[in-house]
Amino acid sequence: MPKTTRRSVDQLALDLLGKSIDQVNRAEARVLDLVHFRRLTSRDANALAAEEASFGDRLADKVASIGGSWGFIIFFAVVLASWMLLNSGVPAVLDVRFDPYPFIFLNLVLSTLAAVQAPIIMMSQNRSSEKDRIAAKLDYEVNLRNELEIMRLHEKLDALTAALDAKSDAAAKDQN
């Protein structure tokens, strides 16, 4: 069987996608390069997102993970119950009522915490959405690569079939 030469990226674009290399988008061009140079297409979306993350992004993720945990909820419930207990005058021996009922200072603290925590959680959710977009882009590249490789395999099988058919036709003529 004759050795096949590797097609250029331009020829791959024309043969497999039916477009010139100038007409393909960045993802398609990247996949065609990877096919041509026989390199892996799949990459870790989390690793890519982590590479692009700034200090503020990582901090927002950490705050959101802590603020959305059962440990934080239980700790905060204990702090709130303690605050209200101390300021309600129940333990009369301590007499440390710095925020008497209706706990106006507690309301201020809770409002401030919510005002700061909400945008931080939104930043983390935006980063999560960005990770999802990166993952979808990478999935597209892998799927495109798989389709192109299947098309190339079909071409090879068709060439092998044609060569075998030609060989069997030649053998049949020789027998006659």
Care to describe what's here?
- Helix content is 75%, strand content 0%.
- The chain has 6 helices and no strands.
- The model has no long low-confidence stretch (mean pLDDT 87).
- The chain is mainly alpha-helical and 176 residues long.
- The two termini are 25 Å apart.
- It has helices at 9-17, 26-36, 45-52, 55-67, 70-88, 104-175.
- The chain has 2 domains: 1-42, no CATH class; 45-128, no CATH class.
- Helix 4 (55-67) crosses helix 6.
- Keywords: Membrane, Transmembrane, Transmembrane helix.
- This is Putative membrane protein.
- Pfam families: DUF1003.
- It comes from Sphingomicrobium lutaoense.
- The chain crosses the membrane at residues 63-83, 103-123.
Query: Taking Cα atoms only, what radius of gyration do you get, to the nearest Å?
Result: 32 Å
The overall average pLDDT, rounded, is 87
State the shape.
Answer: rod-shaped
Distance between the termini: 25 Å
In total, the number of domains comes to 2
Number of helices: 6
- What's the main sheet like? none
Write the layout of secondary structure elements.
Blueprint: H1 9-17, H2 26-36, H3 45-52, H4 55-67, H5 70-88, H6 104-175
Organism: Sphingomicrobium lutaoense
Transmembrane segments: 63-83, 103-123
Pfam family, one: DUF1003
In short:
The chain has 176 residues and is mainly alpha-helical.
Short descriptors:
single chain, 176 residues, mainly alpha, 2 domains, 6 helices, rod-shaped, DUF1003, transmembrane, Putative membrane protein, membrane
